């Protein structure tokens, strides 16, 4: 009975969605509202108005910067949710009494990770700061930072990672993505323009452009660092180094 | 009064930016001292409440405050638009939110692991930010972003006690909530393909001439499905009794008084701001959907009340009672008469105060002596008079007996139904009221008219920071019942504008 109800509900939703998709403007149409209403301005004037050659970056940080501030708050909320339910990683040894950092790992793996980690990190910073002229930006760069540290943790163990980046250092950095947006927003307010406006009055044209570039870079770095550290903290609080997992590797 | 801080023009964005700043700094602040989080959250909520209340007088039904973020005019940028309904919501959120933070203080230090307390307050500040942002935004996608924040935080707040049942209820809530968020996102995508815009007023303008009416109609259906889950309308209410009853009591009060109202505000915006009665001329879907929602609202009233009566657990009963009131509010909003809309909006206020008080009282009963069953409340009227009287007054409002706000709300809702000739709704809603009286006064009966066999001296009134917020909310229901005219004329004007669009 329950299954039948679920099946009927799914069928109704599916048919409704398919009907809607069928009635949507065709993908290749140039006259459909989604290509003629707001988009022409983004494409035509986005570069000089929003200050980014990459139009997507311009939309994300400038035209709809407030939404992006909301999105980084979503990521922060997710971190708070994970920590509120799972708590942060425990200090010291794991429950099994085995220190995972002393488990011998393959020399090849550790060497590869040791050599590649700095390069990956450098690439992450490049991605964060190069979101303006090319694809990339804070979110992508942050994901790379997070992934690299997670790789390090898998190879060298949670104890080593948490010693290098203790919670005390991570907590302030986790809020940095929201604080980047908020501080740039409040700078705008102090100059008497709207929240998250990057062209500040009272400066010359060239200086205002430079200031805008700097403000956008601060926000990108904030999104990247904050996002990366949040990934790391979420993974750390989910890791459980149990005896079961270690049994195969303990010499 | 907006000259108060000398930043009059920036007021609308500060309503969101200030609590967000407090939320972002809360974990950092907690590194210094964990116990400093409560005053920090209190300060954040107080400043926000001051900002919100100082806007009273600047907004009237005919005049909304607008604020273009990053300086872009809509439809290119995001606009904050505080209309009368938005301001009403912001004032309710900040007032009830402030009392909930105060109430949380002693409750969480008794109920939660100490290392989770800072994140409790952070989540509380985040959820307030998101609800305020959701109520004041004029942009559909921004609405979705804010909805994501208050959804994620509310799942976490349900599970924060760490009990197995709490985690299970939160997971159920997460599954339904995430599905409904996706539905809303799909609806926004459909609407964007039909209109090319995300600004609500601009969309309603585009809808008058769009050649993709069917796409917009499908989007309307998806919106209603998505927001109905957030509002816990029958038959997608199933997550609510579990989540609201197992959550820590201040969280239950928050979810019941404020968070489910966001689903209603979402529906209100979609029905009247984005589509509007004007859309009925272009597609029959609008009228059809409104009819379906009003029938489901009546079903919510009856099913919720019937299920509330058979509960033995105090908090589960209160949780089912929320479903009843969601029914009343949506019945008022979908009956499409000025008085019905007034009643629905007024019931948002009345229910926020009444149900907030109910859950706070339930929390005090758990705090003092871990009493969860209704029959365990014997003799509470003598040992905890303030708490018991607060509950009784709030119960009068929930049932709808004068001179309380709940009475005014129900009166206008039923008046609206009569004006539209929907007598069957009047009869069914009155039956719901009778059932509500049965389950509310059963508790009052246990509190006052049955004595405990041996009164326990330790079970006296709880801490003043817990019963004072409950008593204040109860007093609020009486205040707005007597001085309903503070709001009714403006609400009537707002309703007339909404229905004329």
Descriptive notes:
- The complex is a heterodimer of chains A (251) and B (501).
- By secondary structure, chain A is an all-alpha fold.
- Chain A has one domain.
- Chain A contains 12 helices and no strands.
- The longest helix of chain A is centred in the C-terminal third of the chain and has 34 residues.
- Chain A is globular and about 65 Å long.
- The C terminus of chain A is likely disordered.
- Chain B has 501 residues and is mostly helical.
- Chain B has a domain of 218 residues.
- Chain B is built from 19 helices and 2 strands.
- Chain B has a two-stranded antiparallel ribbon.
- The interface between A and B is large, with 56 and 69 residues.
Summarize the structure.
Chain A has one domain.
Which outline of chain B best applies? Answer: globular
Residues in helix, % of chain B: over 70%
- What would you call the quaternary organization? heterodimer
Question: Kindly state the mean pLDDT of chain A as a whole number?
Answer: 85
Approximate shape of chain A: globular
Radius of gyration of chain A over all CA atoms, rounded: 23 Å
Uncertain residue segments of chain A: 243-251
Main sheet of chain B: which strands, in order across?
1-2
- Structural class determined from secondary elements of chain A: mainly alpha
How many β-strand runs of chain A? 0
The arrangement of helices and strands of chain A along the chain is HHHHHHHHHHHH
Structural class of chain B: mainly alpha
Largest sheet of chain B: 2 strands, antiparallel
Calculate the terminal CA-CA distance of chain A, rounded to whole Å: 54 Å
Low-confidence stretches of chain B: 1-6
Major sheet details of chain A: none
């Amino acid at each position: 009975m329950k299954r039948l109800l679920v099946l009927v509900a799914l069928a109704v939703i599916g048919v409704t969605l398919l009907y809607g998709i069928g009635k949507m403007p065709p993908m290749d149409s140039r006259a459909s509202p989604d290509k003629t209403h707001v988009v022409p301005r983004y494409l035509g004037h986005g570069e000089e108005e929003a200050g980014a050659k990459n139009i997507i970056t311009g939309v994300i940080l400038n035209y709809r910067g407030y939404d992006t501030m909301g999105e980084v708050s979503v990521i922060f909320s997710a971190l708070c949710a994970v920590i509120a339910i799972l708590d942060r990683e425990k200090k010291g040894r794991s429950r099994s009494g085995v220190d995972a950092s002393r488990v011998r790992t393959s020399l090849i793996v550790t060497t590869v990770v040791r050599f590649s980690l700095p390069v990956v990190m450098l690439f992450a910073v490049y991605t964060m700061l190069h979101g303006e002229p090319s694809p990339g930006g804070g979110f992508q760069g942050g994901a790379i930072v997070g992934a690299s540290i997670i790789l390090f943790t898998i190879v060298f163990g949670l104890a080593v990672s948490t010693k290098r980046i203790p919670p005390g250092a991570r907590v302030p950095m986790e809020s940095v993505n929201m604080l980047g947006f908020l501080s740039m927003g409040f700078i705008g307010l102090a100059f008497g323009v709207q929240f998250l406006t990057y062209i500040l009055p009272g400066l010359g044209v060239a200086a205002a452009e430079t200031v805008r570039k700097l403000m956008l870079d601060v926000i990108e770095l904030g999104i990247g660092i904050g996002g990366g550290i949040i990934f790391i903290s979420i993974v750390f609080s989910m890791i459980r180094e149990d005896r079961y997992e270690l049994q195969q590797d303990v010499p | 009064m907006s000259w108060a801080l000398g930043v009059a023009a920036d007021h609308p964005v500060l309503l969101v930016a200030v609590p967000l700043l407090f939320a972002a700094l809360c974990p950092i602040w907690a590194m210094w001292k964990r116990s400093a989080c409560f005053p920090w959250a209190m300060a954040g909520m107080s400043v926000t409440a001051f900002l919100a209340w100082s806007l009273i007088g600047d907004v009237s039904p005919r005049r909304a405050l607008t604020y273009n973020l990053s300086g872009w005019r809509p439809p290119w940028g995001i606009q904050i638009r505080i209309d009368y309904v938005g301001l009403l919501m912001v004032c309710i959120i900040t007032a009830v939110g402030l009392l909930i933070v105060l109430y949380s203080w002693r409750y969480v230090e008794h109920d939660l692991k100490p290392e989770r307390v800072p994140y409790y307050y952070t989540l509380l500040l985040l959820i307030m930010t998101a609800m305020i942002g959701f109520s004041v935004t004029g942009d559909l996608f921004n609405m979705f972003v804010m909805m994501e924040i208050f959804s994620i935080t509310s799942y976490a707040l349900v599970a924060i006690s760490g009990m197995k049942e709490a985690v299970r209820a939160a997971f159920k809530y997460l599954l339904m909530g995430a599905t409904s968020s996706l539905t809303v996102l799909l609806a926004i995508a459909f609407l964007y393909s039909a209109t090319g815009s995300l600004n609500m007023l601009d969309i309603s303008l585009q809808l008058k001439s769009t050649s993709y009416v069917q796409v917009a109609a499908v989007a309307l259906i998806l919106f209603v499905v998505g927001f109905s889950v957030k509002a816990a309308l029958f038959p997608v209410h199933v997550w609510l009794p579990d989540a609201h009853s197992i959550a820590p009591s201040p969280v239950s009060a928050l979810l019941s008084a404020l968070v489910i109202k966001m689903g209603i505000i979402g529906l209100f915006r979609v029905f009247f701001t984005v589509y509007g009665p004007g859309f009925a001329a272009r597609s029959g879907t609008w009228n059809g959907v409104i009819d379906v929602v009003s029938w489901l609202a009546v079903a919510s009233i009856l099913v919720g009340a019937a299920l509330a009566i058979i509960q033995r657990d105090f908090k589960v009963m209160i949780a089912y009672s929320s479903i009843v009131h969601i029914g009343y509010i949506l019945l008022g909003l979908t009956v499409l008469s000025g008085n019905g809309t007034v009643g629905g909006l007024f019931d948002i206020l009345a229910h926020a105060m009444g149900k907030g008080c109910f859950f706070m009282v339930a929390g005090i009963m758990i705090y003092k002596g871990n009493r969860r069953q209704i029959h365990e409340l014997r003799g509470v009227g003598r040992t905890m008079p303030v708490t018991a009287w607060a509950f009784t007054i709030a119960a009068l409002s929930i049932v709808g007996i004068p001179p309380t706000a709940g009475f005014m709300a129900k009166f206008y809702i039923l008046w609206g139904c009569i004006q539209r000739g929907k007598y069957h709704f009047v009869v069914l809603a009155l039956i719901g009221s009778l059932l509500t009286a049965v389950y509310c006064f059963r508790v009052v009966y246990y509190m006052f008219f049955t004595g405990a066999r041996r009164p326990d001296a330790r079970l006296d009134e709880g801490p003043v920071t817990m019963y004072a917020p409950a008593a204040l909310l109860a007093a609020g229901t009486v205040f707005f019942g007597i001085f309903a005219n503070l709001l009714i004329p403006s609400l009537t004007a707002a309703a007339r504008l909404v229905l004329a669009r």
